[in-house]
Specification:
The complex is a heterotetramer of chains A (230), B (1050), C (118) and D (89). By secondary structure, chain A is an all-alpha fold. Chain A is built from 8 helices and no strands. Chain A has helices at 2-23, 33-46, 51-59, 61-82, 98-120, 129-146, 154-178, 202-225. The two termini of chain A are 33 Å apart. With 1050 residues, chain B is an all-alpha fold. Chain B is built from 40 helices and 7 strands. In chain B, helix 25 (580-607) packs antiparallel against helix 26 (635-650) and helix 29 packs antiparallel against helix 30 (729-749). In chain B, 63% of the residues are buried. The radius of gyration of chain D is 15 Å and the shape is flat. The N and C termini of chain D lie far apart (47 Å). Classes of the chains: A mainly alpha (230), B mainly alpha (1050), C mainly alpha (118), D mainly alpha (89).
Chain lengths: 230, 1050, 118, 89
């Protein structure tokens, strides 16, 4: 009880801080200098229609590389933690319904295709590597639900993940030598705004991110599914 | 040619991803990739470091995405960044080596996590973008969460979870702060935000700052960190403490730049509270890694204070903060790696280290670096920091810093004492590949010491010849003791021959004692066999400190020498069999005294006219010691007080004396005379210097010199009084030293010519007879195997030379004719006649006869009376111990006959300061205004009287009846404690009844109470950390609220 | 409108914090944190919102030329994207930890994980 | 500007808070997880309204979808652990 009161009292102070921030907040009428730069220059400089994507993949590419690495780390650690609890696969479980199994066979390729579509078009439309990657992972999830005993090749997943990661870093370094700096997308021709093959390396990078993120989420899910029920 | 810093990040990431391509079974290859990548990252950073250090180039901005900041993330590489990156990458490399076994067992995923951790730390240092900072922080959090799991300790899992809980709170606050900061400034670039100032978004900035501050593990929001420190793999704990804390501090510094000067007090406040609390809480710790964790928190706090004080540190900022930070990082990494070799987790288990002297050296290097002792960077940094604080009048902060540092030194040296003195059931397990990181830390520590010496713009302590000579003995540890001993004697003698002409007569006397006096005592050291590892570096460091003290003309040199002699003597004292607690109290009192001296110098420097030429980095005002004389009111008396107490700690004035008896009595046979006969003089020298330069001072109407006079008198009385009640012969001598130093202090405080002359007489005499007595008693104790006097007796026939030495020593000391002690007394009484204060003299007069009592007891119970059965086959003490005693006998007689040999020149020298009342030296007669003294005549008279009495006694004793050993009537009972029936037990029981109340251990109880109080405070504080991760989250929120409220109040 | 959204975000943070501070079950703490994370995301997006403008994507509706007048600030959106992904990473890690703790101690009560203290 | 949009936003906000309350105070673990997922899902609706389609997609796919699944996965593994909790506070 005391704990709750103390928690409430502390959070009251935080509430006060937040309330002050809230009341002091006035929406901008004009874009600030940074946003203005992006609005004015993205199309011309980077050739990307989706400005958010341009920021994520190029302007703040280092953040995104870190972000991908966060997932990489999380997947690696989840694997590390759960490795000890991998269950013995001899134990049988009740079979899953026929409907789910068939549905899965039908749905999985479509989901994978959708995921790929989302990240390939990241520079044009909403969505990109992360969203696409999550969609790909959902296909894996579906397969796991259909067949809980399915054993995914960690080797394959981690090979995809690693290759995508290495290529990502390599493209970044290529930017150092071929263009203006690390992760500069202008190592490839910018093309015409709005076309699929435009925006330099952005579609390539976002695709790699998509593959990598998909592999990372899949790896986490697979690791979790292989744990033994206590 | 240097390589783009981005390659550091790319290499770390690329290697991490690459390990994923490898087969699960190719862990060896993955490990090689990991090491290779870390080595490459280290090399690139080191290349930058060399570039910046060599050329002094400006920091370089590195764009990403081919777009200038603030529109794309930019990195910056400068001197500080390069140094930190080198530190981080090397720490990562060595951590990987240290954890090699674990990494290979856990596979490539673990290696990838380690690589990402190091990469993220580098990124945290390099980035100039606030949100990018957040991303790297999160990477570090997650990587930490992974690396914690590498521990064999199952509890590490819960520690990691506690960390994740708190970091969730932290990241929420950080994100909210960042986005509102962005909204207010329209940029995420740190420099861009700093340009606009935080005024427009103070609240958001507060959230950012407090979130980054929380990563520094400030008190009390740090329970999770302690749990990680305690339970993580030591290889990782090293990385966590050395690299992660350093990077977080740097990030905090970057973020603080946005807020500007008005936020500096927040950093200072958080820092000093963490520093003091961390150290206090470490005090009751018994787990080594947790203790190191508390120390890490404290050290981060200290660096945070430096960060918070950057407005007054000016161009010294990097020197100070960098020195503290690198010292801490290297030392802490080394200590954590060392802890990997120690099987048990109790502090006492570190005794196992003694099996490998090299590891002990690494241990002591780490401790010295953490304590800020010379010649390590922390020492220089502390000197500058304290001076700049004093210069601004921030004395309270200065006081807290010194207090915290003293507590820290206390628990660190207590730990070191355990390692040297306790027994461990474990053996040490150190495969070569895990020793390499420790050696690297050891070498880095000394290299940093050298670098900071060069940067300090003062004399580099590691280039000073006497210290180098002392340190050279570290390389000679393989050699036999006799060889090292010969070198030591040769070195001291040679040093004297080379330099004696440079000194004025007063210093020359001290020089003779410090060098030749030391050399004579070293003759006794020939008795030791084997290699005597650790003895010579320690002893020679002490002697180096003492000669440097005489050489020093400026305050820095003086203080550095003072610390050197303190450390050296501590190691010497610690060597004694039972000396562990006494050595600890010695080092704590000595460092306490040293800190008072430091504070005194710093305060003086703020107002003294500086005469020192400005050096390379334009050092903080170091001043010529002589210019203490120019100090004006109201600073002068305070400086005087601080310095006087500091010096009196070394001379063991009453109240500050409790360390001395144990330290001197428990030391080895040849060490006791070194620390008693020689080392105590360093304190007297300090007092001489102080009084010569500052003269009389008064504070609130109290004449401070008069106060010293009283302290001297009381010390003399009580020291002697306590000496007569000792059962232990060496303790008796030790207490007698307290009394003797009281005399000397009294003489100095008389502030007249003869008083000073007498103090100098005491300097010489005390050296000679106390060294002699300690040697002879030490020789007896060595032969009999005991120091209790009632267990001895009748040794006169078996150890005649020791007896003669004792007898001569006693005659000299008690101040009866004909030996030099009388000369001392004669001058002394003349001096008293000169002075205006008569009351303390009564005390001094009283203590004379008391001294005679304990001396009588010494000779009576050891050499006279009946021989014990078990002692019948004893031989005289070894020649090496007897020889110096005989030399002393010769010196005593020489000085007694020709006191003018030395004193005349000193007498003339003192006239410069105190012209009145000089002695008149004519031929063999010395005349004062109260009478005359002819030593030769007295010698002859006394010799005649002695011969007459001796002859008469021989005549009378012809018919004396000899009492046989068993000619004693026993009653039937055997007493419970047989010694109580011995006549030599409680020898002066009647006096004890009469005066015992004076020697109640009030002072011991007082200091004991203080120690208990500190321990209790530490224990109470520890209860905050009840192990519940949720409560730790409360701590964090409370911390935020408290800082918020106090910031509102400001 | 933006203020309402922002206030909701802040409230979500506070609710999440309260849950994390008062539940002793590790899983429920994690759930509470996901609520707080969502709250942060809502706050960030609301900070970047500008009345009457459209998403920062150039297409037929928004031409590159008048983008400055037509789109909202893209930066907070980019930040939120990163924050969401990082959030799920941390959540996954905490879940793995929770599972490991459960396997080791057979409990999810944080008050019982106090082997390390003092 | 029509009143429809603000009304929708207000409604979603209210629903979010209610769901968040359930996530914190709800009786069962499963319900709490679902409620948290619901909060996330409604947040993505809100993002769509606030002209942030990228964020909306991410929040829906990752914040509400994946996170919820991860939570359920682990819940399935530790079932029974939940019941040991000695209530709140």
């Amino acid at each position: 009880m005391v704990k709750r009161l103390v928690a409430l009292a502390l959070l009251a102070v935080f509430g006060l801080v937040f309330a002050t921030l809230l009341t002091g907040y006035a929406p901008d009428a004009e874009l600030n200098q940074t946003a203005r730069y992006y609005a004015e220059r993205t199309a011309a400089d980077l050739g990307a229609a989706n400005i958010v994507t341009a920021i994520i993949v190029t302007y703040r590419g280092l953040d995104t590389l870190g972000e991908v690495t966060v997932l990489f780390l999380a997947a690696a650690i989840v694997g590390l933690v759960l490795a000890e609890g991998a269950h013995d696969r001899s134990r049988m479980r009740p079979p899953v319904g026929e409907l789910l199994t068939t549905g899965t066979r039908f749905l999985v390729p479509m989901i994978l295709l959708l995921g790929a579509y989302v990240f390939v078009n990241g520079h044009l439309t909403p969505g990109g590597g992360f969203q696409g990657g999550a969609i790909i992972a959902s296909a894996v999830l579906l397969m796991l639900l259909a067949d809980p005993l399915r054993h995914f090749s960690h080797r394959l997943i981690s090979a995809i993940e690693s290759l995508a990661g290495i290529l990502y870093v390599a493209i970044g370094i290529a930017g150092l030598f071929l263009a203006g700096g690390f992760l500069d997308n202008r190592i490839l021709p910018l093309g015409n705004l709005g076309e699929l093959a435009s925006a330099g390396a952005i579609p390539l990078i976002y695709s790699l991110i998509g593959l990598k993120v998909g592999a990372e989420f899949s790896s986490m899910l697979a690791s979790l599914s292989e744990t033994e029920e206590p | 040619m240097v390589i783009n810093a981005l390659h550091i990040l790319a290499t770390g990431l690329g290697a991490a991803f690459l390990t994923g391509l490898l087969d699960e079974k190719r862990n060896g290859l993955a490990f090689m990739i990991t090491l290779g990548a870390l080595a490459f990252m280290s090399a690139v950073s080191a290349g930058w470091l060399v570039l910046f250090a060599a050329t002094g180039a400006h920091p370089m901005d590195i764009q990403t995405a081919g777009t200038p900041p603030p529109f794309a993330i930019a990195l910056r590489m400068g001197l500080a960044e390069a140094a930190l990156l080198t530190l981080i990458n090397l720490a990562g490399l060595f951590a990987a080596m240290h954890m090699g076994e674990t990494l290979l067992a856990r596979g490539r995923r673990a290696m990838a996590v380690l690589l990402v951790m190091v990469m993220a730390l580098c990124g945290l240092v390099l980035t100039r973008d606030l949100f990018n900072l957040f991303v790297f922080f999160e990477l570090i959090v997650i990587a930490t969460g992974g690396l914690v799991l590498l521990s064999d300790d199952e509890r590490a899992v819960s520690a990691g979870f506690k960390y994740l809980i708190v970091s969730q709170f932290i990241s929420v606050l950080l994100l909210v702060g960042i986005v509102f900061g962005y909204h207010a400034t329209g940029t995420l670039n740190i420099d861009g935000m700093a340009e606009q100032g935080s005024g427009a978004f103070a609240l958001a900035f507060f959230l950012i700052l407090i979130a980054v501050a929380a990563e520094l593990k400030p008190f009390p929001a740090n329970g999770w960190a302690l749990d990680i420190y305690e339970s993580a793999h030591p290889g990782f704990a090293a990385l966590f403490s050395a690299a992660a804390a350093s990077a977080a501090l740097f990030a905090f510094d970057k973020v603080l730049a946005i807020g500007g000067a008005e936020w500096l007090p927040v950093a200072t406040g958080i820092g000093i509270v963490s520093f003091v609390a961390g150290n206090l809480l470490a005090l009751p710790q018994t787990n080594d890694r947790r203790l190191l964790g508390y120390s890490s928190i404290a050290q981060s706090g200290l660096i945070l204070v430096a960060i918070g004080q950057q407005d007054i540190l000016g161009e010294h900022y990097l020197f100070i903060a960098g020195g503290l930070l690198l010292s801490h990082a290297v030392a802490k990494a080394g200590l954590y790696w060392l802890s990997g070799f120690v099987a048990g987790r109790e502090l006492t288990d570190w005794a196992a280290l003694r099996q490998r002297p090299l590891l002990v050296l690494a241990f002591v290097t780490g401790i010295a670096m953490l304590s800020g002792l010379p010649p390590f960077p922390g020492f220089y940094a502390k000197w500058e920091l304290v001076h700049l604080l004093a210069n601004e009048g921030r004395l309270a902060l200065l006081g807290w810093i010194l207090f915290g540092a003293l507590v820290e030194a206390g628990y660190l040296f207590r730990w070191f004492g355990y390692a040297i003195k306790r027994e461990s059931a474990h053996t040490i397990d150190c495969p070569p590949d895990r020793v390499i990181p420790v050696i690297a830390a050891l070498l880095a520590g000394w290299a940093l010491g050298f670098a900071w010496g060069e940067l300090s713009g003062r004399s580099n302590l590691l280039l000073v010849l006497p210290l180098l000579f002392a340190l050279a003995f570290l390389l000679l540890e393989w050699a036999p003791a006799w060889l090292k001993n010969t070198l030591a004697i040769g070195g001291l003698s040679l040093y004297f021959l080379q330099t004696w002409q440079d000194y004025d007569p007063l210093r020359l006397i001290f020089l003779v004692i410090f060098t030749l006096g030391g050399a004579i005592i070293f003759l006794a050291s020939f008795h030791a066999h084997g290699r005597r590892i650790g003895f010579y570096p320690s002893a020679m460091t002490m002697f180096a400190g003492m000669v440097l003290l005489l050489q020093a003309t400026d305050s820095f040199g003086f203080f550095a020498a003072w610390e050197l002699l303190t450390i050296g003597s501590y190691f010497l004292i610690l060597r004694g069999k039972e000396s562990e607690p006494h050595a600890l109290s010695y080092i704590v009192f000595s460092l306490g005294g040293a800190f008072l001296i430091l504070a005194g110098f710093a305060i003086a420097a703020a107002s003294v006219v500086t005469l020192a030429p400005s050096g390379a980095v334009s050092p903080a005002p170091t001043f010529e010691i002589a210019s203490l004389a120019t100090l004006a009111q109201p600073v002068a008396p305070w400086v005087f007080l601080l310095l006087a107490i500091g010096f009196m700690t070394k001379t063991a004035a009453i109240g500050l004396h409790i360390w001395l008896p144990g330290a001197h009595a428990e030391a080895e046979t040849d060490v006791s005379p070194m620390v008693s006969g020689v080392l105590l003089k360093a304190g007297l020298y300090g007092l001489f210097v102080l009084l010569m330069s500052m003269g009389r001072q008064s504070l609130y109407g109290v004449d401070l010199v008069n106060l010293m006079l009283w302290i001297g008198a009381i010390t003399a009385l009580l020291g002697n009084l306590m000496a007569i009640f000792q059962e232990d012969a060496k303790r008796l001598l030790a207490y007698s030293s307290i009394g003797q130093m009281g005399y000397a202090l009294f003489g100095l405080a008389l502030m007249n010519h003869l008083g000073w002359l007498m103090a100098l007489m005491f300097v010489i005499n005390h050296y000679v007879y106390k060294s002699m007595l300690f040697l002879s008693v030490g020789g007896v104790a060595k032969r009999t195997g005991t120091r209790a006097m009632y267990q001895m007796g009748g040794l006169i026939t078996l150890m005649p030379l020791s007896f003669i030495a004792t007898l001569v020593g006693i005659i000299a000391m008690s101040g009866v004719p004909p030996l030099s002690g009388f000369g001392g007394r004669w001058i002394f009484y003349n001096a008293i006649m000169d002075a205006d204060t008569r009351l303390p003299m009564v005390l001094i007069f009283l203590s004379g006869p008391i001294a005679f009592l304990y001396l009588f007891r010494l000779i009576h119970t050891i050499f006279l009376g009946q021989l014990k059965d078990e002692h019948r086959r004893l031989k005289e003490a070894p020649l090496s111990i007897v020889l110096p005693q005989m030399i002393y006998v010769a010196i005593l007689i020489g000085v007694a006959i020709f006191p003018g040999l030395i004193l005349r020149r000193v007498d003339a020298y003192i006239s410069q300061f105190l012209p009145d009342g000089a002695l008149n030296w004519e031929g063999l007669t010395i005349t004062s205004q109260y009478g005359w003294w002819n030593p030769v005549a007295i010698m002859i008279v006394v010799a005649c009287i002695f011969l007459l009495i001796f002859g008469w006694l021989l005549f009378v004793n012809r018919k004396a009846q000899k009492v046989k050993q068993f000619n004693i009537v026993f009653s039937a009972e055997r007493p419970y404690r047989p010694e109580t029936t011995h006549f030599a037990w409680n020898f002066f029981a009647p006096y004890k009844k009469a005066m015992g109340f004076l020697v109640q251990p009030f002072v011991t109880r007082f200091w004991g109470a203080i120690t208990d109080l500190l321990h209790t405070a530490g224990d109470l504080g520890r209860r905050l950390y009840n192990g519940n991760g949720q409560i730790y989250a409360f701590h964090f929120l409370i911390f935020v609220v408290v800082v918020f409220v106090s910031q509102l109040g400001m | 409108m933006v203020h309402v959204v922002m206030a909701t975000g802040f409230l979500l943070i506070l609710i999440g914090f309260y849950g994390a501070l008062t539940h002793r079950n590790l899983l429920r703490m994690i759930v509470a944190f996901t609520v707080a994370d969502t709250g942060v995301n809502v706050v960030i997006v609301s900070v970047g919102h500008m009345r009457g403008r459209s998403a920062p994507i150039l297409d037929r509706a928004v031409a590159a030329a008048d983008a400055v007048q037509r789109i909202i600030d893209p930066v907070p959106q980019a930040l939120v994207l990163t924050a969401i992904v990082i959030g799920v990473g941390v959540t996954a890690l905490m879940l793995a930890y929770a599972w490991r703790i459960y396997r080791q101690h057979r409990t999810l009560d944080i008050a019982r994980l106090t082997a390390l203290k003092g | 500007m029509s009143y429809l949009l603000p009304a929708l936003v207000g409604l979603v906000c209210f629903a979010m808070l209610a769901a968040a309350f359930v996530a914190i105070r709800g009786a069962g673990m499963a319900i709490a997880i679902l409620a948290a997922g619901l909060v996330s899902l409604m947040a993505s609706v809100l993002f769509l309204v606030l002209a942030a389609p990228d964020v909306a997609m991410t929040e829906a796919a990752i914040g509400s979808g994946l996170t919820t699944f991860l939570l359920f996965f682990v819940l399935g593994r530790v079932r029974g652990g939940e019941k040991e909790e000695g209530g709140h506070g």
